[in-house]
Write a sequence for this structure.
């Protein structure tokens, strides 16, 4: 069996050793080398030609973001970021995911911590997923375009305007997982100012990162983007990102021609290992008497979350879009949704926003 070759990059000798030992304990992977900073990492990549790189976000000499940019612009490789749970760590991680990192792993207790052993299963699982994305990264990742994404959409932010009416008669439901932050940066900023629809987003992410994701999207989008809060109303022209470790559901009714929905965050048990869950959000909308248009969207992600939900909203008359395999980092969630027979359109990532507007 061909082993997955992994390069471990971290400025902490303890962390390098612990992660290396976790990798080498698996029969299907091996740590082929280590590096103390981004500069060393670029040399080791040329030497060892790894299948996957685990890359610390914050390092001296050359940091993780700078190293990642170089990797993605010269010879794209699957990269997993190691991030601290600080606000700065979250913001840098989101930047890394936008630039092309496949996923990230959080350090439980700071930079040097043996608690990393507690997330050993997560590390090895994500390495296996990352290794499978290598051909896809080479084919689908537009490195230069994503590097310039912020400046490309700055004009849209300055043109912000409220929708013509606060009456909610359209909903966009969007679910994604692995590769999702980058995908959301392609879709949400392309939605036009004044869009008369409320947008609910589930991105599989732990607590502490979804707020940074929402704030980052808000700075480059013509619509308003925020982390969802319990009890707030769903308004047209706003996108609400489910907070990490909370299911996002909605409650309300469409009686007398008025759709009044409000957000309900719950700590109900995870569904298919996820909280927030795409299925939970989609099914909560399907259970309502919502008298308006619904568009459901399933983007890149591992697993089958959302496949049950698209069936539920389709029965309520929704239109459903799935991301095409050609642009997915992981063609898991869209594939499973398509197999339900409830998907109306399968489109590549750059065309998703346009298709949403067309369906509305």
């Amino acid at each position: 069996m061909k082993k997955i070759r992994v390069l471990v990059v971290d400025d902490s000798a303890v962390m390098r050793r612990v992660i290396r030992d976790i990798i080498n304990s698996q029969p299907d992977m091996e740590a082929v080398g280590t590096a103390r900073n981004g500069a060393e990492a670029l040399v080791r990549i040329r030497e060892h030609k790894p299948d996957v790189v685990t890359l610390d976000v914050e390092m001296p000499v050359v940091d993780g973001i700078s190293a990642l940019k170089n990797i993605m612009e010269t010879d794209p490789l699957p990269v997993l970021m190691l991030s601290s749970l600080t606000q700065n760590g979250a913001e840098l991680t989101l930047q890394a995911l936008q630039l092309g990192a496949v996923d990230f792993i959080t350090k439980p207790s700071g930079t040097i911590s043996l608690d990393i052993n507690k997330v050993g299963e997560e590390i090895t699982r994500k390495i296996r997923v990352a290794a499978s994305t290598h051909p896809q990264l080479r084919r689908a990742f537009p490195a230069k375009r994503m590097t310039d994404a912020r400046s490309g959409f700055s004009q849209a932010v300055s043109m912000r305007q409220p929708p013509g009416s606060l009456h909610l008669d359209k909903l966009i439901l969007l679910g994604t997982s692995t590769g999702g932050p980058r995908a959301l940066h392609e879709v949400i900023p392309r939605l036009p100012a004044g869009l008369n629809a409320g947008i609910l987003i589930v991105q599989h992410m732990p607590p502490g990162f979804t707020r940074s994701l929402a704030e980052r999207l808000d700075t480059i989008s013509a619509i308003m983007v925020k982390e969802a809060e319990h009890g707030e109303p769903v308004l047209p022209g706003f996108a609400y990102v489910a907070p990490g470790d909370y299911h996002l559901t909605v409650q309300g009714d469409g009686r007398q021609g008025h759709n009044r929905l409000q957000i309900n965050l719950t700590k109900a048990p995870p569904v298919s290992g996820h909280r927030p869950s795409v299925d939970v959000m989609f099914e909560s909308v399907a259970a309502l008497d919502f008298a308006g248009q619904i568009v459901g969207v399933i983007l890149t992600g591992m697993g089958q979350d959302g496949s049950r939900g698209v069936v539920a909203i389709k029965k309520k008359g929704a239109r459903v879009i799935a991301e095409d395999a050609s642009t997915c980092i992981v063609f898991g969630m869209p594939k499973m949704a398509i197999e339900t027979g409830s998907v109306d359109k399968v489109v590549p990532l750059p065309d998703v926003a346009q298709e949403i507007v067309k369906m509305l």
